[in-house]
Amino acid sequence: MKIVAMLPARLASTRLSEKLIRDLAGLPVIVRTYEAVKQTGLFSAVYVVTDSKKIETLVRSRGAEVLFSTTDHATGSDRLAEAASKIEADIVINVQGDEPFIDKQSLKQLIDVFTTDIDEQIDVASLMTPIIHTKDAENTNVVKVITDLKGRALYFSRTLIPFNRSLSNDLKIYKHKGVYAFRKKALIDFAKLHMGPLEKAESIEAIRFLEHGRVLQMVETPYDSIGIDTIEDLDRAEQLLKTRS
Predict the structure, then answer these.
(1) Which DSSP helix (H) or strand (E) runs through 132?
(2) pTM of the predicted structure, to 2 decimals
(3) For residues 60 and 54, is the Cβ–Cβ distance under 8 A?
(4) Which residues of 174-245 form beta strands (DSSP E)?
(5) Burial (Cβ within 10 Å: 0-12, 13-18, ≥19) of residue 135
């Protein structure tokens, strides 16, 4: 089974301009993410998928392989679907380019979903982590997920789900981490599926699979890494790297 990692790396960003090429303790964010993924040793290849010459120059200087994509993609998975059609792979792991603290254990858990899925019933796997703080549960930038008893995704939302009417102390609220593992065919098919009303309403690409009846297996991880979306995130990441050095 050939397993590769792909890092969608679009230069334009909404909340933090050109965030992937911003300095993070001496290296651009995208380079930090690439090196974190590469150092896990889990992948036959690690590709940076981009529409930007700036990003290409930065990551090639660190030895990264680059695949170019067109600029008119609605989601990171659409971008990766174009790139995946150009390579040989069985499983493609999508790690966002702004995740410099992605950990090996979580990525290995995603890979294990497919090595144990002998009947190939699962199309996609993704990560979730328990939400501890109320402010995160109420934050619409934090995507929540609910699953069935086998851990398969039922729905994703920016609002708080599920509603705890019974005030049960056993209920956990989960945050969706935007790291995906795809069977290559499922990834390429993703770009061919039309965007449904729920995906449009929530602006959450994972919902596309659910609206089209695909199986998305969630994997619980205790690691809640820092994604770089705002200048505050960048500052927090800088401080974390300083404490680790």
Answers:
(1) none
(2) 0.90
(3) no
(4) 174-183, 216-220
(5) exposed
Residue 94 near residue 179, CB atoms below 8 Å: yes
| DSSP 8-state class, residue 43 | -
Q: For residue 45, what pLDDT band results from cuts at 50, 70 and 90?
A: very high
Angle among Cα 198, 200, 202 to the nearest 5 degrees reads: 65
The continuous run of DSSP H or E covering 40 comes out as: none
Rounded to the nearest 5 percent, the helix, strand and coil shares of the chain are 30, 25, 45
Q: Where are the alpha helices (DSSP H) in 1-143?
A: 29-38, 53-60, 76-84, 104-115, 134-138
CA distances 10 to 17, 19, 30, 70, 240, Å, are: 11, 9, 10, 10, 25
Measuring CA to CA, which residue among 205, 234, 214 is closest to residue 24? Answer: 234
pLDDT of residue 243: 82
Residue 154 pLDDT grade (very low, low, confident, very high; cuts 50, 70, 90): very high
What is the topology classification, in CATH, of domain 3-225?
Spore Coat Polysaccharide Biosynthesis Protein SpsA; Chain A (3.90.550)
Comparison of pLDDT for 108 and 79, the residue scoring more? 108
The residue extents of the domains of the chain are 3-225
DSSP 8-state assignment for residue 97: T
91-130 tens-digit pLDDT: 999 999 999 999 999 999 999 999 999 999 999 999 999 9
Quick one: which of 26, 15, 20, 92 has its CA closest to 50? 20
Over residues 213-228, the pLDDT tens digits come to 999 999 999 987 778 8
Give residue 183's region: left, alpha or beta (phi > 0; psi -120 to 50). Answer: beta
CA distance 212 to 200: 14
Look up residue 222 and give its two tokens. 């205790």
- Which SS3 state, helix, strand or coil, does residue 117 take? coil
